[in-house]
Amino acid sequence: MTKPTDPRLSDTSVFPDPVYKETVLRPLFDGAKTHHVQSFRAIDRAHLVMLAETGILPRATAGRIARALDAIDAEIDPTALRYDGTVEDYFFLIEAELKKRLPTDDAGRLHTGRSRNDIDHTLFKLVLKPRLDHMAGLLRALITATLDLAEREKATLIVAYTHGQPAQPTTFGHYLSAAIEVMLRDHERLVQARALLDLSPMGAAAITTSGFPLDRARVAHLLGFAAPLQNSYGCIAAIDYLTATYSAVELVFLHLGRLIQDLQVWTAFEVGQLYVPNAFVQISSIMPQKRNPVPIEHLRHLASQTMARARMVRDIVHNTPFTDMNDAEGETNEAGYQAFATGERVLSLLAALLPALQVDGRRVAENIRRSCITITELADTLVRSEGLSFRTAHEIAADVARAVVAADGDLPRDGYAPFRKAFREHASREPQLNEPAFAEAVSPEHFVAVRERFGGPGPQALAAAFAGYRGVLVAAGLAATATAAREASARHELDAAFADLIGAA
């Protein structure tokens, strides 16, 4: 029997395998140099400042390292780098460059008390924060544009649909008000996800922090985080910051997709209650009569792409172990960045398109006439003015609607005779409601005006809603400005502390 051999003794291979280099290491390196260079620099500088301030490194040593980092930044253009396999990744590239510029005893000291684990998750948070901020800002701009449009069209009648069928009249402002409330809730979800991004993993090291007296709060502050994330295991294992971010992004575009779908239907020739101006219309190459509101189609598929890309990130990390894993790191994050790219296109285009839309009042009036959608208010009026039960009033109204629709009539003009007949049949008496009062009760303007309940389309209810939305938007804008100012101040503080270290070399 052949004696077993230890494969370690006969292994003559050299890292990296050429196929591994091309399929994994090169794409990761290219992603790092494209997206993460500035964050790498900030992490190195903040960690170094902390090492010097805590006395973990002598100030003179930290100064020499600072000068070397500054030289690397000045001498190396990341965009010109081509991965050759000499080092494993961008992190080790910087370590190799430090070794070229520092005495042997100094070269490895920057990595004291840290790991690629806490570096990576800090890195991803630093890159996600501005992306989420930009998306939230674009969403606020869209909400503002929608709110401006809603106020402009607060009294403009439209047909509201349920189950794809004409249901009741309301105003375009009231419809948009509903969309605004969803967008505000989606914005709040972005803000909540942003709060998770604002907790620093630095100082967790590989898993359990370090025996060195690290000042995690100082590093968090210098990097612009609100605070350090507490549990060190969670710093490298709990990627709920990632799933929360992409869940919030996914919901923004899932919900906008429903609004976009309405725009597609409402601008169709057969419905036609929304008019799209020529600036947003493409023509047919063969059919001269065609007006194609193609931007709405682009909005729809770009929203779907964004939603799918955000969901993909969550799907990738499903059923991964609760530990530091590549599944939630470089290439997954890079794929997720595409969700921000397409999502920002949707938000910008929709904010431009919505204010340009106009309600076609003629088509709305005709659709209201043909569908008898004010008949609900007739039933309500009969309960109030005739003392009927709602069920009896509903049966009378249903008979009237059937008669008017069958005759292709107009409810205010042609509905009174069928109403008197139905009323006598169901109530066994003559109605007190005369013809002018009937015509007013079934007019779309009256339908809207009497619905002054909280959340309704009545003028006062809608004005109160608009004021509330404005208040929420103002508060959100002020909070975003305050966060940006805090983080800008932290950048200036880090720059000053790092420059001071260079002077100490």
For the secondary structure, the number of strands is: 8
Low-confidence stretches: none
What about the largest sheet? 2 strands, antiparallel
Alpha plus pi helix count: 21
Helical residues, percent: 55-70%
Which word captures the global form?
elongated
Measure the end-to-end span.
Answer: 65 Å
Structural category: mainly alpha
Strand order of the largest sheet: 1-2
Computed CA radius of gyration, to the nearest angstrom: 32 Å
Please state roughly what percent of the residues sit in beta strands, choosing from under 5%, 5-15%, 15-25%, 25-35%, 35-45% or over 45%.
under 5%
User: N-to-C SSE series?
Assistant: HHHHHHHEEHEHEHHEEEHHEHHHHHHHH
Mean pLDDT, as a whole number? 95
